[in-house]
Amino acid sequence: IGGELGRLANGLGSVEKSRQASERLDASHFTGLDVQGANQVTITAGTSDTIAVTTTLRGFGGTDEDAVKALQAIRWRLHHENGTNALISVDQPKGRRFFTGHINGQQFGNTSSVDLVIQVPARFTVKVDGNHGDVRVSGVGAAQIKTDSGRIQAEDLHGTLQAEADSGGIVGQRIAGNTTLKTDGGRITATQITGTLVAETDNGAIEVDGVTAQAELKTANGRITAKQITGPLVAETDNGAISATGAADGATLRSKHGRITGVRLAGAHVVAQTDTGSISLEQPGITGTSYDLTTEHGRIGVGVTTDASLRIDLQTEHGRLDSQLPLADQLKDDDRDRKTLKGVLKTGAQMLHAQSKTGSITLHAARH
Questions:
Q1: What's the sign of the alpha-carbon dihedral 106, 152, 253, 283?
Q2: Largest interatomic CA distance in the chain
Q3: How buried is residue 36: exposed, middle or buried, by Cβ count under 10 Å (0-12/13-18/19+)?
């Protein structure tokens, strides 16, 4: 496959012509920058009150003449129209497509491409509407980023982030504001988010480490890993495992097909539900939390601190029930259709309900 794609990229008589151009604009009267129609876009914070742009323009064609025509047909401008934002607009020619994607750095799908390297004041809000290319933004005030196909990376923002890709992964790091990351297909990684986080992908894993407010994580197909969530945590996947460590204000973890693992999940309620997969919780030092744990096919293991005050209700149709902790008012029923184990730890202030159709359930002292 790789050899054939290389032949398509460099064979069939295809030719590339390119040139570079630069432009600067006084930014003292602007508060932001809009970028429209470019391919690869890199935006960083500069040290002056200036917008500085370096462009790399490429034209592709079956002959030298065709490639030159495609290159000459590209139009781009750094200018000001209305409002308080400067604008970079790119107009690329349409015609026969010599390329059809991004492979090993090659641009596919257009007769031309425009790559931008931009420096703006750190106070700027930037908005990028990309066209089949990667976008990277760092060090600015806030960002809204969209690309049809490509990877998005945003880091060290002083404000909010909204990033959306039709196809491609998204990375958000050290964002000092509410963050929304959405892609139709690709992995999402978010670290050190000061604010709320929404992360959604139709096909890809989600990995999150450090959110100071609520986190909502959803994927149709992929694993979810969440660490150090200060606000409420919601993690949902149709197909994949879920691992959550250090949620401070409750957690709702749902997977149709996958294992669920939780460690040190505090807050009023912890909910873990899976159709096919085991559930494992280790809760050292966690008190004041109620639990609702359900799996259709899998075992459940729950480790709680001996200081927890819980009413225990364990149920399974085909499996064993076991408490390694002494329970007051213990009732155990080994009925053929449904087995139950009930009892009380301390005063029973909160509820621990665990249910499996075809798996054993074990309650034990939390492991540190």
A1: positive
A2: 89
A3: middle
pTM of the model: 0.90
pLDDT, one tens digit per residue, over 83-131 is: 899 999 999 876 544 443 444 444 444 578 999 999 999 999 999 999 8
Closest CA to 227 of 210, 205, 204, 214: 210
Q: Are 33 and 88 in contact (CB under 8 A)?
A: yes
Closest among 74, 50, 48 to 61, alpha carbons compared: 74
Number of H helices, E strands in the chain: 2, 35
Dig out the tokens for 195 from the structure.
């604010």
Alpha-carbon dihedral of residues 242, 245, 251, 253, nearest 10 degrees? Answer: 10
Residue with tokens 């790399």: 56
Q: Rounding to the nearest 10 degrees, give the CA dihedral for residues 75, 76, 81, 85.
A: 160
Cβ neighbours of 94 (radius 10 Å):
11
